[in-house]
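Narrative of activities, Objective 1.

The group set out to show that a structural description can be obtained from nothing but a protein's sequence at a throughput compatible with the screening campaign. Below is one input-output pair from the validation batch, recorded exactly as produced.
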Amino acid sequence: MDLRGDALQILKETSRTFYIPISILPSGLQEAVASAYLCMRAIDEIEDHPELDNATKTQLLRNISLTLQTGVDGFAVDAFSLAFSGYENSLAEVSLRVREWSILAPESIAPRIWDATAAMADRMADWAEKNWKIETESDLDRYTFGVAGAVGLLLSDLWSWYDGTQTNRTQAIGFGRGLQAVNILRNNTEDLTRGVDFFPDGWNNDNLQEYARRNLILADAYTQSLPSGPALQFCQIPLALAHGTLDALVNGKEKLSRSDVYALIENLMGINVKAS
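Output recorded for this entry:
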C-alpha cells in the first residue's frame, strides 16, 4: 500500500487549503507534516462531531491519547480498536485511520507527533467535559493554545528536525492562535447551532477580531523570520488565508469565496491551484 499517496488523497479530500502547501514539501518533511496534520484532523473530527455526545467524545479522545502514549516503534494493527469499539460506523475515515497517519512520519520524528497528538486529545477531552465553556480571555487563551498554539510549537520542532531552522516559540504560539481565532470567527454560527460558544462572556465580533489580529501580528513575525525554504513556503499559505478571511468577515462576508482562495494561493505560489 502506498501510505504516502493515500494520505495525500485523504488530505486533499479533507482540506484543500493544507493539501496544497503539504503536497509541495520535500520528501521526509512532507510525510512528517502530513502525519501531524492528519493525526490532528482525526481527533478534531471527533471533537466537532455533530452526533456524538460530550461523554462519548471524552471517552474516544482519552482512549486515543492512551494508545498513542504506548507507542514504541509504531502500533499494532488493532492498537486503536478499543478506542473506536462501537463507533466504527459513526466516525470519519480520517479518524478511524489515525494509526496509519501516526506511522507515516519518519521514525526519528514520529514520537514527537504522537506526543503532541496525545496531549491535544487529552486537552480536547477536558474541554468536551466542560462543553467548551469559555468565560474569560484566559479561558480562550487556554483553548487556542491547546488546539492550535501547540501545533505552532510542533511545526517549529518539525522545521528544526528537518534542516535546523530555528524559530521564536512565542511567535509560533501566536501563529497557531491567530489561525484558530479566525476559524472561531468564521464558524461561530455553526458552533452556536451545536450549543458551543467560544466567545468569552461579554465579547462580540469586534473583540474577537481584535484578539485575532493581535495574534496574527505574532504570526506575521514568525513567518517573516523564516529563511527561504520549505517552512516559509508552508506557512505563507494558511497565514495569507487567515488574513484574507478576517478581512472578508470584517467586510460582512461569511468567508472567502473559492475563487478568492485560489487567486490568493496562485499569487503566493505561482502555481495553477485548480490543476493541482
